[in-house]
Design a protein that fits this description.
19% of the residues lie in helices and 24% in strands. By secondary structure, the chain is an alpha/beta fold.
């Protein structure tokens, strides 16, 4: 059986959530109408994706790197406010789950912000995958440009592949016009999801014959935004930006498309910084596959009122 967009329900991937750090973000950056004086602690998830048909695997993002001193100066200047905490790096977490970091074939970056790039040197054989326009947006990077928030060493990686809207083959999926079929069997798509920054990607994993999982990156930073319960913050952002999103209007369009996907009963949305996924969602070495039969989407909704978020004054 082949779906209308050419993908096959028989082709699936295994997905595990990886808790690659935490950080604080000012509430005014995230939600419209939020307190101007407080900040909230957010998780920073990455995802391990295994493709049984080929035996290949990838990491979708790497979270925060442990050696915080390696980051650009303008990022480090905000650490007293963001308070990044990394008990274990992405590579260490995989090793603890008996997954050799050297077995990871690809690292797909949702985008190149500091809390997603991790340390790719932990994965000695991986090829980096970037979304369209990433290199131009981040070049030349720090320290060549001492004021850049982007780490130049990522762009100098020996194995790097940036997707192209012009020369790569894209298929539509739901409201998204461009989806890149990563394993060429419909099991894992990369959705062109611009707005937060140039090259921003989301992952869409087929985790069962009747279920999908969206790896949302930083399409938005709070589930209330894609569920329609809240609106994206405006007027405040890092380094005195107007918003958390480089192109706010395009980001709103992308969020609207994510919201449409999220309303489907067969789609589970997992943002990189969604503080309401645990404990219902199990972490590595557990897998998220089978989430629909397990009622995970409903369990997440039920546990939201019980979760106490960690908030403090700026």
């Amino acid at each position: 059986m082949v779906a209308s967009n050419g993908t096959s329900p028989a082709a699936t991937v295994q997905v595990s959530a990886v808790p690659t750090g935490t950080l604080y973000l000012p509430d005014k950056w995230i939600l419209s109408g939020a307190s101007l004086e407080t900040k909230t602690r957010y998780p920073d998830y990455s995802f391990y994706v295994y493709h049984p048909a080929s035996g290949q695997s990838l990491m979708f993002d790497l979270g925060i790197r442990k050696d915080l001193e390696a980051y650009p100066q303008c990022i480090r200047d905000e650490f007293p406010m963001t308070e990044p905490n990394v008990p274990q790096s992405a590579g260490q977490l995989l090793s603890e789950a008996d997954i050799d970091p050297a077995s990871i074939n690809y690292i797909v970056y949702s985008h190149l912000h500091f809390d997603h790039i991790g340390n790719p040197s932990e994965f000695p054989t991986s090829t980096l995958i970037l979304g369209p326009g990433s290199t131009a947006a981040a070049s030349p990077g720090y320290p060549t440009n001492p004021n850049s928030p982007f780490l130049g060493s990522i762009l100098q990686h020996p194995r790097i592949r940036e997707l192209s809207r012009d020369t790569d083959a894209w298929i539509p999926f739901g409201p998204f016009q461009r989806a890149f079929d990563f394993f060429a069997d419909g099991s894992f798509l990369l959705l062109d999801a611009p707005g937060h920054m140039a090259g921003h990607l989301m992952g869409l994993a087929r985790t069962g014959a009747d279920e999908f999982m969206v790896l949302g990156g930083d399409c938005c930073h709070h589930r209330k935004i894609f569920t329609g319960e809240g609106k994206v913050g405006e007027g405040f952002g890092p380094n005195n930006a107007y918003s958390m999103h480089k192109d706010l209007e395009t980001a709103k369009t992308t969020i609207g498309r994510l919201a449409e996907l999220g309303r489907r009963e067969d789609v589970l949305v997992c943002l990189a910084h969604d503080g309401f996924l645990e404990p219902a969602m199990k972490l590595l070495p557990g897998v998220v596959n089978g989430w629909r039969a397990a009622g995970l989407k409903e369990k997440i909704k039920e546990q939201i009122p019980k979760i106490v978020v960690e908030t403090k004054f700026l």
